[in-house]
Amino acid sequence: HYAAVVGVKRTLEKPMHVLADIDGIRNILSLAKNTGVKRVFFSSSSEVYGEPFEIPQNEQTTPLNSRLPYAIVKNVGESYLKCFQQEFALDYTIFRFFNTFGPQQSEDFVLPRFVAAALRGEPITVYGDGAQTRTFCYVDDNIETTVRALDNHLAVNETLNVGSDRQMTILEIAKLVLQRVGGASTIRFLPPLPEGDMTRRCPDNTKMKQILGRELIPLEVGLDKLIEYKRAAL
C-alpha cells in the first residue's frame, strides 16, 4: 500500500483527500481476507509518533502522538490490520518508514529538492532555523529490508521501523548538499511551517539491522548517487 497522499504541504492543504485513503486500506483488507491472501504489508510512517516523547523511537514502547490527518490515517490503518488479524487471522507486517531517499524520488521530498536547487544554482530553502533533526535512509536499504521480511517470513504481525538512526539537522543536510554538489548555491531561510514539521525524528532500527544483517549504506554514498542521477538528468 504505497499509494497514500504524501508531502507535508499537500497533506495539510487537502485533508479530506488524505482521509480518503482509509477507504483504500479497508478495501485492501476486505479483498485480502476474502481471497486467501497470506499477509498484508502496510506502509505506515514515522509520522504516527508525532512530536517525540523519546529518542530513538521504538516500535513497542514509544507512545504515538499523531494529530495531523496524514499521521492519523496511518494510525487508523495500523489499527485496521491488527483488528483484521484478530478477527480473521489475516497476518500483517507494518513498516513505519522514516525519511527515505534515492534517484527518481519526487522533489516534494527534502533531499531531491535540495540537490536539484543546488545543481541549478538556486538557493536551498530551509524552514525555520534548520535545527529540526531527521534521518535519511537510502532506498536500497529500505527495499532490501521489506523484501527480506517477505521472502524470509520475518516480522509477521509486527511493526518495524525502517530508517537510518543517524540524526542530522536540516541545516547540516543543506550544508552537506552544497559541499557535495559544489557551485554557487546558497541557503535561504524562510519562516517555519505552521505545523507538520516535527522537531526530531530518529528510529530505533535494531530490528531492521537484524533483518539486513549489515550496517546501512552511509548517507554520503547514497547522496552522491542521487547527485549523479540528478546531474545526468539536467
Indicate the topology.
Elements: H1 8-13, H2 15-19, H3 21-34, E1 39-45, H4 69-88, E2 91-97, E3 100-101, H5 110-119, E4 124-127, E5 133-134, E6 137-138, H6 139-151, E7 158-162, E8 168-169, H7 170-181, E9 187-190, H8 206-212, H9 219-233
Describe this structure in words.
The chain has 234 residues and is an alpha/beta fold. The protein contains 9 helices and 9 strands. It has helices at residues 8-13, 15-19, 21-34, 69-88, 110-119, 139-151, 170-181, 206-212, 219-233; strands at 39-45, 91-97, 100-101, 124-127, 133-134, 137-138, 158-162, 168-169, 187-190. β1, α4 and β2 form a beta-alpha-beta unit. α3 packs parallel to α4, α5 packs across α9 (219-233) and α6 (139-151) packs across α8. It is globular.
Index terms:
single chain; 234 residues; alpha/beta; three-stranded parallel β-sheet; two-stranded parallel ribbon; 9 helices; 9 strands; 44% helix; 15% strand; globular
In which range does the helix fraction lie?
40-55%
Low-confidence stretches: none
- What integer is the average pLDDT? 93
The helix count comes to 9
Give the termini distance in whole angstroms.
31 Å
Over the alpha carbons, how many angstroms does the gyration radius reach? Answer: 18 Å
Order of helices and strands: HHHEHEEHEEEHEEHEHH
Q: How many strands, which pairing sense, and closed or not: the largest β-sheet?
A: 3 strands, parallel
What share of the residues does DSSP label as strand, in percent?
5-15%
Shape: globular
Q: Quickly give the structural class.
A: alpha/beta
| Spatial strand arrangement across the major sheet | 1-2-7
